[in-house]
Amino acid sequence: MSARFIAPVLMGIFMLVLWEGLVRAMAIPPYILPGPILVAKTLVSDWGTLWPALVVTLTITLQALLAAVLVGGALALLFSLSRWIELSLFPYAIILQVTPIVAIAPLIIAWVDDVDVSLLICAWLVAFFPILSNTVLGLRSVDRNLLDLFELYGASRWRTLLELRLPAALPYFLGGLRISGGLALIGAVVAEFVAGSGGRASGLAYRILESGYQLKIPRMFAALVLISAAGIAIYLLLSLISHLLLRRWHESALGEER
Amino acid sequence: MVSSPALSVRSAHIVLDGHVVAENLSLEFPGGRTTCLLGRSGVGKTSLLRHLAGLLPGTAPAGPVAYMAQRDLLLPWLSVLDNVRLGHRLRGDAAARHAAGPRARALLAEVGLGHHLDALPQTLSGGMRQRAALARTLCEDRQIVLMDEPFGHLDAVTRFDLQDLAARLLRGRTVVMVTHDPLEALRLGHEIRILSGTPFVPGPVIAPSGAVPRDPADPELLALQARLIGELRTGG
Questions:
Q1: Taking Cα atoms as reference points, which of A210, A136, A140 lies closest to residue A175?
Q2: For position B211, which CATH number holds?
Q3: Contact at CB, A156 and B69, closer than 8 angstroms
Q4: In terms of Cα–Cα distance, which of B188, B85, B179, B82 is closest to B137?
Q5: How far apart are CA A88 and CA B180, in angstroms?
Q6: A to B CB pairs, distance under 8 Å
Q7: Cβ contact B69–A143 (<8 Å)
Q8: What's the average pLDDT block by block, 10 residues per block, for chain A (258 residues)?
């Protein structure tokens, strides 16, 4: 615990001090690179504009993540029930995943009237694939011998899904969820950038763009800090959920206690 | 106890992944007795058990059977007690599940896990997990029990204890046990058959005298063990 916690914190403090020192020593103007102290001050002074923007971005992120869980999970279940559905749909899920969101975001924003909905769709598109592919993998990695056992015990298909496939797939699903949490935030921010260049959004990315235009670089950095902090918070929250759900039985959660 | 039925295989063809494991195979397993199938790794012992259990494509089980695999196959998210009454839980009948409770508890007490009802499998040793698996197999209360190297990866002393326990608890049932350990076959089997060759052919019935579980220090047993090892080496 101690070294694991202290080492990165010390490293962070060292980097911040180095940053502040360089900015002062080389007299870099704040519109090129503000020092961390100025960024912190801006974070406090501009909290009134930044906080509502953070709420907007976080709302879209969490809605997109929820939609990703529902659609990704439901599709994974469907795929595990029918080989035909999987064979027909999975390639298209991959196409959606590999198409850069920056390239299709303008289309989606143009097609969908409601900006919030279009942002939601963009963030969802980025976030749903890890959940889908991980859950499909989990549902399919069930021990062959256990499936035989369930068959011998006369378990119905539904029972086998409920009592064996779903619990066995849970660790995989949670692994996908942790990746998707970060991706949902990235998707939301990217979509806001695209929408923001048309002047139609109010989230953190829009604040970054706006600060850039107005040369308020310290505010831009403050917004960046908030996005990173939000990403870390989402990751930690999802890790905590994962730990709480698995701590009783799964290797990944038991590893450290041995 | 109701006498357990005999089990027989008649002119069976067992094919696994395109390889013929057994051809035109006929075998009899006497009712209420333990038959041990002995053979080297890869000879097709497990395939034969899976055939008997109806788990291979195109086969149907010989009747209601209980199956105990090499690994304990306990579900890591269920307590020991819930694992033992898994069969009842899966058949979804709430009444049967409740009725299975006392039986599962009694069996767990019998295998020495009476104080670990609520423990998760993760927290138990390999021997204890295999005891739980044995209790689960017996909780099904089938007249025919198929066992696939059930004690194969346990240490020697634990294996001895579990063999004694199994011999006591399986008395009166028709048991087909696959093993690669000649001593295990000699301790537990009323009848022993050696499987050898590709596709495999069962050897003649070997029926050691005396009640199971037999004493491993018995000179007759040791002589038989030497003979079995010899046959396994030449027949492989």
A1: A136
A2: 3.40.50.300
A3: no
A4: B85
A5: 46
A6: 50
A7: no
A8: 86 95 94 94 94 94 96 94 90 90 89 90 94 94 92 89 94 96 94 78 86 92 94 94 89 60
B48 and B84 within one domain: no
Question: Cβ contact (<8 Å) for A154 and B140?
Answer: no
Q: Do B87 and A254 touch (CB under 8 A)?
A: no
Residue located via tokens 């004493």: B215
B73 → closest Cβ in A149, A160, A250: A149
Partner-chain contact B67 A149, CB within 8 Å:
yes
Residue B228 identity: L
Backbone φ and ψ for A154, nearest 5 degrees, come out as 75, 30
Answer yes or no: do A152 and B76 touch at CB < 8 A: no
* A 174-213 residues with CB < 8 A to B: none
H/E stretch holding A179 reads helix A166-197
CB contact under 8 A, B90 and A155: yes
Burial of B3 (0-12, 13-18, 19+ CB in 10 A): exposed
- Residue that is written with structure tokens 């953070």 in the block: A54
DSSP classification of residue B206: B
CA distance B67 to chain A (A): 8
> What's the domain range around B172?
1-64+142-236
Domain count, chain B: 2
Give residue-wise pLDDT tens across range B167-199.
999 999 999 999 989 999 999 999 999 998 888
Cis bond upstream, residue B213 (ω within 30) = yes
**Same-domain check for residues B117 and B30:** no
Nearest CA in chain A to B60: A152
Cα angle value A18/A20/A23 (rounded, 5°): 105
Residue of chain A with shortest Cα separation from B146 = A152
B69 falls within a domain? no
The helix (run of H) or strand (run of E) holding residue A95 is helix A83-98
Q: Which of B67, B77, B122 sits opposite A152 (nearest CB)?
A: B67
* Domains in chain A with CATH codes: 55-247 (1.10.3720.10)
Same domain, B172 and B185: yes
**Interface pTM (ipTM) of the complex?**
0.87
Query: What type of residue is A26?
Result: M
